[in-house]
Specification:
- The protein is α+β, with helices and mostly antiparallel strands.
- It folds into three domains: about 90 residues; about 325 residues, FAD/NAD(P)-binding domain (3-Layer(bba) Sandwich); about 160 residues, Flavocytochrome C3, Chain A, domain 1 (Alpha-Beta Complex), CATH 3.90.700.10.
- Helices cover about 30% and strands about 20% of the residues.
- Helix 1 crosses helix 2.
- The radius of gyration is 25 Å and the shape is globular.
- The two termini are about 45 Å apart.
- The relative contact order is 0.15.
Length: about 600
């Protein structure tokens, strides 16, 4: 397991065992325990002497890079320093943190100690202290947009700080595919082709006035510069060229067919493609922040913007358990992501998707909207959500950036009622949209017979889970049923029996004819559901991101409710992404918007601040 470089916390925590806590005794030795983590089992080895925890080693784990791995690196030290399990989890990696504590507790029990008593031993609470800092530019949010903004503003000569509400950097970008669209050679021809393709992919889907051509053009203008910046700080990539604009390659039913489906250029990062993750880009940016000694404050949320009397930004306040932290600044950049993790905001802006699981980072609670509205920022009144892929394990929603689903296209999908609403080999964004039920978590029942069950598997970057393990369901992670008859299966999964049986009968008839006249599924995938025993596995949709946020102009400046610019206030990434999309996600565009707008906002904010 590779140890990651983590940005040093500016505010340190002091670990001292709570006063008056009775010390535990152990049978000296080294013990091992295995518990379930976020992605897979985690094995931990703990060494005790007669009165203390001496060493904790994670010997096997497959947690998400730059998310769960942060907890794997940090939690052992926190537990040893406190000599107890009453330590805080790493914010943003709570499941992995809890798993490590559970494994240590299991080892302590083997060593003759009381695990419950160990959980009561906590570090002494850090004394709250109000502090004030002063910078040229403060970036709020540490995903790719935020890290790009901080890095570029620093390169421009500004004194920069980045504050992040979670205990780790990366945000939703960590779990992306690592592919994005761009202008490969800075040529006008390539740029115009890319702009045309982007606009065509969206305008065929929606007529609500999005995307905005001037915003796409501004992004295309700096695409080459932003990727060159990443290359200069250590990112290796290859370029895959697409030639010619073929409108038939665009999926007008709900998104582009694939990241390379439009005629433009896609930057492919080999280091990322091996694991289908965007973590490598985050790692390169993280390393640059460390190398350049850029101030990074973790566990430090943006709470409130400070304003000058003339209506310009004066800084940002962070309310933390460590006290009030005031960051005075000439410019502030909001890169706090979307709002999928804010239930109230989802119900306000996107009630149809309010019940869905989300692949976005846990810290995406709409902070840019909250802070921006308080100072008069304009919020997009037409917002959408990008659907994702179906996964059997709702814990695996972070794989929403992957180019596949757990569900298998040679089977049959039905809704909670028992009807079929889309082709099983259709684009996942379209499929999840068709199965959406207002305000409820979107899901399908994947109906499988005995012939097809062997092909079911969950494929991840680290491992493959086969049908036997899914059906055994030892960890209770899946909702799976097996019956001898279809009628019994209908009863088990709670669909309308008559509708379900009619759906299967009709589907089998389509298979016999070899033509899906309902939805156009590929003939080679039309396989009958007719041999028992029969199985149903619940596949959950994981939405990728919200699309909206606060309004910005072509320069990434935040626009007020009266249409004027709020001086010194900028936004990038999912905090302000509505202008780039109609109603469809354009493959490989998420990182494009985040990286280029982060780059632009960092450059422009620094130039503004240095002029003041």
């Amino acid at each position: 397991m590779k140890k990651m470089l983590i940005v040093t916390l500016i505010v340190s925590a002091v670990f001292v065992s709570a006063c008056g806590t009775k010390k535990l005794s152990y049978t000296a030795g080294t013990y091992e325990a295995t518990v379930r983590g976020h992605n897979a089992d985690i094995t931990v080895s703990v060494t005790f002497d007669n009165s203390a925890i001496k060493d904790i080693v994670v010997t096997d784990a497959h947690e998400t890079k730059r998310v769960g791995e942060v907890a794997l690196n940090e939690m052992p030290g926190k537990i040893i320093a406190a000599q107890g399990l009453g330590v805080d989890a790493v914010a943003g990696a709570t499941i992995t943190s809890a798993a490590i504590k559970a494994a240590v507790a299991a080892c302590a029990k083997q060593a003759g100690a009381d695990p419950e008593a160990l959980y009561k031993i906590a570090p002494a609470a850090e004394k709250a202290k109000d502090e004030t800092y002063e910078y040229d530019v403060v970036v709020v949010g540490g995903g790719i947009a935020g890290m790009m903004a901080a890095a570029k503003a620093h390169e421009q000569g500004a004194n920069v700080a980045l504050i992040e509400k979670e205990g780790l950097l990366g945000g939703s970008s960590v779990n992306t595919s690592g592919v994005w669209q761009g202008n490969p050679d800075n040529s006008d021809d390539a740029k115009e082709l890319w702009i045309k393709a982007w606009l065509n992919s969206q305008n065929e889907v929606t007529a609500v006035g999005f995307p905005k051509e001037e915003m796409i053009r501004a992004t295309a203008d700096i695409s080459y510069d932003s990727i060159s910046f990443l290359k200069n700080i250590g990112l290796n990539y290859t370029v895959r060229h697409q030639i010619g604009l073929d409108k038939t390659a665009l999926n007008t039913a709900g998104g582009s067919k694939a990241s390379g489906s439009i005629a433009s250029t896609t930057y492919v990062i080999p280091d990322v493609q091996d694991t289908k993750r965007g973590w490598k880009i985050c790692e390169v940016l993280n390393d640059y922040l460390v190398k350049e000694n850029i101030a990074v404050f973790l566990n430090t949320p943006g709470t409130k913007l400070l304003m000058n009397g003339d209506g310009s930004v004066a800084g940002v306040v962070s309310e933390t358990k460590r006290g009030m932290k005031t960051f005075k600044a000439k410019a502030v950049i909001l890169c706090t992501g979307g709002y999928h993790q804010n239930e109230a905001m989802m119900k306000k802006y996107m009630p149809i998707s309010a019940g869905n699981y989300s692949a976005s980072a846990i810290g995406n609670t709409g902070d840019a909207i909250t802070m921006g509205e308080a100072v008069g920022a304009q919020v997009y009144d037409n917002q959408v959500v990008f659907g994702g892929y179906f996964v059997f394990n709702p814990r695996d929603v972070y794989r929403g950036g992957y180019a596949y689903s757990d569900t298998i296209p040679n089977t049959l999908y039905v809704s909670k009622y028992g009807d079929r609403r889309f082709k099983e080999d259709g684009h996942a964004y379209s499929a999840t949209a068709m199965y959406n039920i207002y305000g409820e978590p979107t899901f399908v029942w994947d109906i499988i017979d005995s012939d097809a069950i062997a092909s079911i598997a969950i494929r991840t970057d680290m491992y493959t889970i086969g049908a036997d393990e899914i059906l055994a369901n030892k960890n209770g992670l899946y909702e799976v049923y097996k019956t001898d008859t279809l009628a019994e299966l209908a009863e088990k999964i709670g669909v309308i029996p008559t509708l379900f049986l009619k759906t299967v009968e009709h589907y089998n008839d389509l298979c016999d004819r070899g033509v899906d006249s309902d939805w156009g599924k590929s003939p080679q995938l039309l396989e009958k559901i007719d041999k028992g025993p029969f199985y149903a596995i619940k596949g959950y949709s994981c939405d990728r991101s919200t699309v909206g946020g606060i309004v910005t102009n072509v320069n990434s400046e935040v626009v007020s409710q009266n249409g004027a610019v709020i001086p010194g206030l900028y936004a990038a990434g999912d905090a302000s992404n509505r202008a780039f999309y109609g109603g469809a996600y354009l493959g490989a565009s998420g990182l494009t918007v985040a990286s280029t707008r982060g780059y632009m906002s960092g450059r422009n904010a620094a130039q503004y601040a240095l002029r003041k």
